[in-house]
Amino acid sequence: MRAWVVAEPGPIGPGANELGPLELVDKPTPDPGAGELLVQIRACGVCRTDLHVAEGDLPVHKDRVVPGHEGVGTVEALGPEATGFAVGERVGIAWLRHTDGTCAYCRRGDENLCPNSRYTGWDADGCYAEYAVVPADFAYRLDVAIEDVALAPLLCAGIIGYRALARASLPEGGRLGLYGFGGSAHLCAQVALAQGARVHVLTRGAQAQRLALDLGAASAAGAYDTPPEPLDSAVLFAPVGDLVPVAMRALDRGGVLSVAGIHLSDIPALTYETELFYEKEIRSVTANTRADGRQFLEVAERHGVRATTHVYPLSQADRALRDLKAGRFDGAAVLVNDLS
Ligand SMILES: [Zn+2]
Ligand SMILES: [Zn+2]
């Protein structure tokens, strides 16, 4: 099969002809092992984490890994002992692909904190490929009435946005600030709006601000601007630590900032009086549980949550990542398999 691999992690250049960290190669189609499904990939969303893996912001976990963890495809074959799915069924391959099920965190329902967790497109080959394997226990059944392209970004961007919103403890009808407005934030905004929140979007880029207003945000302004009213909750989606004190100042007393990214540049020193006192809280968000994923997919179907997508052929995954880095599109990029 043909697949993209991260040959040598490093910066993805702005020039269209520059040789980047990704390489399109021929490699053996994977064999589904015990409990695994072999999936023919139809579409795969492009997540900012793919950029972090390609550029080396995240340490290498697997040499020449195939990135991509928002895969939608069709079950092609089942490995020994794999159950719960049938050949031909549509399934989703997401970020979390293994937990031990036995540690204290797993036992108390926090499998996202499992120290033995493994991730698609980082620890194991992902979905920027014609085929991928996934443990059946971690595959998502996709019996929702959402087509492949609109569905793919829900599998990470959507689920993480959903968990980040939950971590932000937004009160009923509350005032929510979203810092950064890419793939994850524009899905999170739709869930919050469906729940009756008033949403203020703080992001650079006129295109993203326009999308925010189109989706129903009460206001859209620059990332460092002050929102028009104090916030009960905020979610930081931009991987920019400098925005933490900015968001903390925008919170009302007792407000909560939830930091959604897996990678964040350093947070500058906080001023206690204006940025933390009055029981403001900062919380991080670490991956998600499978229960988060299943709940979110239900919520997405119920409320018509849809990704605004920009389609690229899978053969141009490197261009999609460059465009993501440069902020050239709003919403989320989705790769559609043109290799098979
Ligand atoms: Zn565990
Ligand atoms: Zn992701």
Automatic annotation (TrEMBL):
<dbReference type="InterPro" id="IPR020843">
    <property type="entry name" value="ER"/>
</dbReference>
<dbReference type="InterPro" id="IPR013154">
    <property type="entry name" value="ADH-like_N"/>
</dbReference>
<dbReference type="GO" id="GO:0005737">
    <property type="term" value="C:cytoplasm"/>
</dbReference>
<dbReference type="Pfam" id="PF08240">
    <property type="entry name" value="ADH_N"/>
</dbReference>
<dbReference type="GO" id="GO:0004022">
    <property type="term" value="F:alcohol dehydrogenase (NAD+) activity"/>
</dbReference>
<dbReference type="InterPro" id="IPR002328">
    <property type="entry name" value="ADH_Zn_CS"/>
</dbReference>
<dbReference type="InterPro" id="IPR036291">
    <property type="entry name" value="NAD(P)-bd_dom_sf"/>
</dbReference>
<dbReference type="InterPro" id="IPR011032">
    <property type="entry name" value="GroES-like_sf"/>
</dbReference>
<keyword id="KW-0479">Metal-binding</keyword>
<protein>
    <recommendedName>
        <fullName>Probable alcohol dehydrogenase AdhA</fullName>
        <ecNumber>1.1.1.1</ecNumber>
    </recommendedName>
</protein>
<keyword id="KW-0560">Oxidoreductase</keyword>
<keyword id="KW-0520">NAD</keyword>
<dbReference type="InterPro" id="IPR014187">
    <property type="entry name" value="ADH_Zn_typ-2"/>
</dbReference>
<keyword id="KW-0862">Zinc</keyword>
<feature type="domain" description="Enoyl reductase (ER)">
    <location>
        <begin position="17"/>
        <end position="335"/>
    </location>
</feature>
<dbReference type="GO" id="GO:0008270">
    <property type="term" value="F:zinc ion binding"/>
</dbReference>
<comment type="similarity">
    <text>Belongs to the zinc-containing alcohol dehydrogenase family.</text>
</comment>
